[in-house]
Amino acid sequence: MYKILITGGAGFIGSHTCLVLLEAGHSLVVLDNYANSSPEALRRVMQLAGPGAEGRLQVIEGDIRRSADLERAFAAGASTGAGLDAVIHFAGLKAVGESVAEPLRYWDVNVSGSQHLLAAMAAHGCRTLVFSSSATLYGYPETVPIPESAPIQPINPYGYTKAAVEQMLRDVAASEPGWRIASLRYFNPVGAHPSGRIGEDPNGIPNNLFPFISQVAVGRREQVQVFGGDWPTTDGSGVRDYIHVMDLAEGHLAALKALLSGGDQLLQLNLGSGQGHSVLEVIEAFARACGHAIPYVITQRRSGDAAITVADPTEAKQQLGWQTRRNLDDMCKDGWHWQHANPNGYTSVRTSY
Ligand code: NAD
Ligand code: WQD
User: What residues are labeled active site?
Assistant: First the structure.
């Protein structure tokens, strides 16, 4: 069993991954500044993981840009014998529009934060890393499904920060032996743990389709705006590769196993289902899950959107022995379960850990 540092472990994808790793028997140190999350998420992760996980989750409130906070996390990892075996690096900012308005903050947190983390890892002799990259790297894709060999051509500051960190990781891996690194390029993560106890809890008006639909379904918002009905797709709405957050969490476990059981590696892998679904299909599927219609209106296209982005997930299957197992109905059923049981997310219970 391994000891793993999870940066950003209280967030949407991080909390689900923590649960999967605890259930697999690993010990975790989470470092999170709660910039976009609640300590309640990790409290619930511990409840879900059950008594067998007691003592295997240490939580540190801190910032990846602060060396002192990173030192506390590495010290926590070393407190019960040998140090950390690996890091999963989720911490970062992820809102495309916000990155256009505040590019320096995005470069600071995403790029400088990753640089600080890598320096701390090198100093502590921990050279195994799974990094949260994004399909946003591909910009407007030239071929669909998109293979990892597709050109990296981001179209917004958020995408540029992910491309910069991937480049930093290639440079670090080439600089000395011993690094085992996986950059996982997520497509569109959605849904929630089937218990409905943990899920996605965006601040303010959701930027992304799935949480927006969920909030319309639960009555927090009036209707979904469908950004464009004239795309070159079967029903005219945009097509994406939605991936259940539990499949994604399991993808991280598979990546860790692949890294920790092999020698020096630098993996760059798409994590997606390979299936495309249109906005209107997602709205219909969610309506089936919640048992009532979801009001929507078709509006203008959103600037910066592509018509279709779908992963070619072949490489991840070959390298990790991993593929998605859950379909769009599972994503909607579990997403609805979470939203229905927690209409205001974690907000009503924001307490310290
Ligand atoms: P999230 O915002 O829910 O989680 C990110 C976590 O990082 C939060 O808990 C936040 O508090 C923490 N954090 C932010 N800045 C920090 C800092 N300076 N120090 C310590 N902690 C900090 O987002 P998520 O959806 O779980 O995404 C996780 C990662 O995956 C991000 O790097 C994101 O860019 C990437 N990603 C997300 C998506 C998506 O659609 N959700 C898609 C592709 C890639
Ligand atoms: C999906 C589809 C919209 C909202 C973003 C980031 C990407 C990655 C995942 C982090 C599109 C349509 C949306 C709405 C709509 N994140 N839509 N009405 O844009 O594919 O990807 O999240 O790395 O970097 O760009 O996801 O959920 O915003 O949009 O019609 O209110 O839904 O046009 O076709 P996207 P999304």
Answer: 158
Ligand nearest to the CA of 137: 2
Helix (H, G, I), strand (E, B) or coil at 36: coil
Cβ(208) to ligand 2 under 6 A? yes
CA–centroid distance, residue 110 to ligand 2 (Å) = 20
CA distance 146 to 270: 9
Residue 313 burial (C-beta neighbours within 10 Å; 0-12, 13-18, 19+): buried
Nearest ligand 2 atom to the CA of 190 is: 27
For residues 224 and 297, give the distance between their C-alpha atoms in angstroms, rounded to a whole number: 6
Q: Which atom of ligand 1 is nearest to the CA of 133?
A: 44
Is there an atom of ligand 1 within 6 Å of 90 CB? yes
Q: Quick: pLDDT tens for 256-290.
A: 999 999 999 999 999 999 999 999 999 999 999 99
Structural domains of the chain, ranges and CATH numbers in brackets: 3-349 (3.40.50.720)
Whether the per-residue pLDDT at 327 is higher than 60: the answer is: yes
pLDDT (0 to 100) of residue 348 = 61
C-beta separation of 242 from 214 below 8 A: no
Supply the pTM of this predicted model: 0.98
CA 30, CA 32: separation in Å to the nearest integer? 6
For 208-234, give one letter per residue: b (16+ CB within 10 A) or e. Answer: bbbbbbbbbbbeebeebbbbbbebebe
